[in-house]
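User: I've been trying to design a sequence by hand for this structure and keep getting stuck. Would you show me what you'd pick, starting by listing the structure so we're on the same page?

Assistant: Good idea, let's start from the same input. This is the structure you sent:
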């Protein structure tokens, strides 16, 4: 972790959030790469599920954190607790992201159906004439 102690732009030493981001993004990114490249069928499914789940949970957590940023800055030891949470989710000893997924999969599925239905409103609609033109071109 020598890079965590080095100085960056403007002689600023990396802060707690920078360390959390490095741990929360770099290590899982490397492990995700290895999971994608894995060819062992018996470990591939579990490994890929762990890392895909990690990224989904991390993304949702980061989005919530972004929305609540003005409140979060007032919570004592927030970044230390978040670092522990990210480690718990990422490290293979605990597979916390997989545990979260297993506990919340049905709820997430329900919300995803709602989101997908909402997204259908924004898809461009095709004219009947356009469908007819496409059908006649195949003849």
């Amino acid at each position: 972790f020598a890079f965590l102690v080095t100085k960056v732009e403007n002689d600023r030493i990396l802060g707690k959030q920078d360390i959390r981001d490095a741990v929360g993004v770099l290590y899982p990114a490397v492990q995700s790469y290895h999971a994608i490249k894995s060819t062992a069928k018996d470990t591939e499914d579990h490994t890929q599920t762990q890392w895909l789940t990690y990224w989904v949970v991390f993304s949702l957590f980061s989005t919530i954190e972004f929305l609540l940023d003005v409140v979060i800055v007032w919570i004592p030891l927030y970044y230390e607790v978040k670092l522990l949470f990210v480690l718990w989710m990422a490290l293979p000893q605990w597979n916390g992201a997989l545990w979260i997924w297993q506990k919340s999969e049905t709820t997430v599925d329900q919300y995803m159906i709602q989101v997908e239905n909402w997204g259908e409103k924004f898809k461009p609609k095709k004219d009947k004439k356009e469908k007819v033109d496409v059908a006649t071109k195949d003849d």
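That's my pick for every position. To get oriented when you compare it with your attempt: The first helix runs from residue 16 to 37. Strands lie at 7-8, 12-13.
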